[in-house]
Amino acid sequence: MQPWLSPVLKEENDVGLSDLMSMAKPNIEARDKILARISGKELVNCFQCIKCTSGCTALKLLELKPHEIIKLVNLGFVDELPSSDIIWTCVTCLKCVQRCPQKASPYHVIIALRNLAVEKEAKVPERYLKAVSQILETGQVDTYQKIVTRKMETVDRESLKLPKICAPKESFQVVFMKAMEEKTV
Amino acid sequence: MTRIGVYVCHCGLNIAGVVDVEKVAEYAKTLSDVVVSKHYTYMCSEPGQRMIQEDIRNKKLDRIVIATCSPRMHEETFRRAVAEGGLNPYLTEIVNLREQVSWAHTHEPEKATEKAKALVRMGVARSRLLEPLEKRRVSVEKSVLVVGGGIAGIQASLDLANAGFPVYLVEKAPSIGGRMAQLDKTFPTLDCSACILTPKMVDVVKHPNITMLTNAEVTDVKGFVGNYEVTILKKPRYVDEKKCVGCEVCAQVCPVKVPDRFNENLTQKRAISIYSTHAVPNIATINSEYCLRLKYEKGVCGKCQEACEAEAIDFEEQPKTIHVKVGGVVLAVGSEVFNALQMAELGYGRFKNVISNIEFERISDASGPTGGKILSPKNGKTPKTIVFIQCVGSRDKRFHEYCCRVGCMVTLKQAILAREKIHENVKIYVCYIDMRAFGKGYDEFYGRARDMDVDFVAGLPSEIHESTDGSLYFDVFDKGTNKLLQIRTDLVVLGTGLVPNKDLADISALLHASRSADGFLLEAHPKLRPLESAAAGVFLAGACQGPKDIPDTVAQASGAAAKALDLLSHGEIEIEPLKAIVDEDLCSGCRICASICPFLAIEMKTDIIEGKEGARAEVVEAMCQGCGLCSSACPTGAIKIQQYSSKQVMIQVDAALAESCAEGGK
Question: What domains, with CATH codes, occur in chain A?
Answer without folding.
Answer: 15-119 (1.10.1060.10), 126-178 (no CATH)
